[in-house]
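Action item from last meeting closed. Structure (416 res):
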């Protein structure tokens, strides 16, 4: 983060105990005003500014960090952040009692652009720095872990904010009366929605945190908390590249949104976890093979019944998975991806470990011939005939790039 130390004392005042008006959830958004991937962020236009920055009274807004002098944009920023701009980056770091180097690491991890000498930061930014640094000083988090917390929070909320502005608010700010502009509707709408959305965000986060914590504490040992055995599945739309050439942008966007929504709903409804969406592909995980198999077949069945959707193919693997920042990594994930790429359309391919797990748990027979023999034997002995949810059919062994030779199995639903 570029800072002119000669201006470090200008206008910097320690925040009073009651001045942290911005909530914790808005403090992340109030960093150096903009995503590092966007040069047009609120302050990025000033990132290369040279020369001294003159002090700005606290009741005024410093426009030097604003790409335009649009008064509505400034009012909206103050409404959302809950405070006026007050500090340069150096002043904020000094007021928070944090080194400039560590402050820059935190801000960049959160996805905020360098702001140079511009006064673009608020009391909430100072408070956020104090909290993160305090967790490190108290020994609750290591410095690398604190940076990871900042990065994961920044990446997640940046995507959420983009979606809300691009889709949610765009639809709601249609002028209700002739002659009104969209900007005239935006401010009162944001003013009404902001506290409600903030509370809802915290509620969902707490529910997700409780669920994730429950999964971790049920792990068999400490190693499983990081490297766990999971079922990982990829669901991929067939022929999506051809569709991008044929469909209009709006139609393509609606198709992707419908696909992602359907997948997210089905994965959640059947106790899986949606790891991420990639437009024409989703990645999900489940704690057991039976759950992952049910999700995969439900996805195929649902998409097949929808004439507006292309064909779908799914690949699943079972094994040790490393989890980091909500994502999953490792050979198991790579294998699931490769199985997806070779799966027939409207079909599910699984690896040998996944097939063995289904057989072990009694969700699928080792073979149909064995299942038939077992049924005859059970009837003769007056026992209940075993039932299975799934059927497995071995496929030809084939080389898979980067993973050697694998023997995929075709997964299907077994008639009841």
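Sequence:
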């Amino acid at each position: 983060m570029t800072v002119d130390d000669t201006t470090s004392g200008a206008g910097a005042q320690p925040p009073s105990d009651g001045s942290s008006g911005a909530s914790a959830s808005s403090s992340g958004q109030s960093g150096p005003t903009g995503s590092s991937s966007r040069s047009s962020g609120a302050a990025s236009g000033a990132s290369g500014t040279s020369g001294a920055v003159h002090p700005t009274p606290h009741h005024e807004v410093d426009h030097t960090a604003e790409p335009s002098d649009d008064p509505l944009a400034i009012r909206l920023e103050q409404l959302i952040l809950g405070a006026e701009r007050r500090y340069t980056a150096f002043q904020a770091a000094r007021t928070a009692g944090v080194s400039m180097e560590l402050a820059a690491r935190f801000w960049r991890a959160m996805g905020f652009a360098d702001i140079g000498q511009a006064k673009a930061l608020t009391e909430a930014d100072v408070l956020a720095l104090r909290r993160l640094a305090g967790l490190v000083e108290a020994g609750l988090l290591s410095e690398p872990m604190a940076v990871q917390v900042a990065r994961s929070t920044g990446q997640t909320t940046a995507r959420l904010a983009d979606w809300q502005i691009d889709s949610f608010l765009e639809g709601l700010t249609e002028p209700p009366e002739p002659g009104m502009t969209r900007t005239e509707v935006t401010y009162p709408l944001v003013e009404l929605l902001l506290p409600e959305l903030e509370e809802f965000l915290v509620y969902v986060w707490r529910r997700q945190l409780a669920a994730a914590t429950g999964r971790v504490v049920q792990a068999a040992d400490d190693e499983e908390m990081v490297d766990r055995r999971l079922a990982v599945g990829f669901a991929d739309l067939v022929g999506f590249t051809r569709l991008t050439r044929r469909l209009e942008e709006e139609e393509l966007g609606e198709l992707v949104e419908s696909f992602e929504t359907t997948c997210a709903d089905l994965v959640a409804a059947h106790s899986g976890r949606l790891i991420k969406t990639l437009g024409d592909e989703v990645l999900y995980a489940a704690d057991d093979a039976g759950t992952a198999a049910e999700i995969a077949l439900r996805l195929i069945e649902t998409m097949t019944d929808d004439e507006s959707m292309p064909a779908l193919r799914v690949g699943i693997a079972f094994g040790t998975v490393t989890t980091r920042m909500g994502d999953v990594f490792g050979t198991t994930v790579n294998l699931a991806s490769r199985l997806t790429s070779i799966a027939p359309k409207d079909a599910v391919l699984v690896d040998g470990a996944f097939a063995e797990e289904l057989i072990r748990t009694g969700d699928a027979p080792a073979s149909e011939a064995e299942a038939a023999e077992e049924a005859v034997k059970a009837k003769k002995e007056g026992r209940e005939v075993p039932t299975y949810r799934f059927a497995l059919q071995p496929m030809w062994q084939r080389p898979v790039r980067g993973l050697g030779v694998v023997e995929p199995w075709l997964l299907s639903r077994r008639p009841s």
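Note appended to the action item: Confidence is low (pLDDT under 50) at residues 1-31, 33-68.
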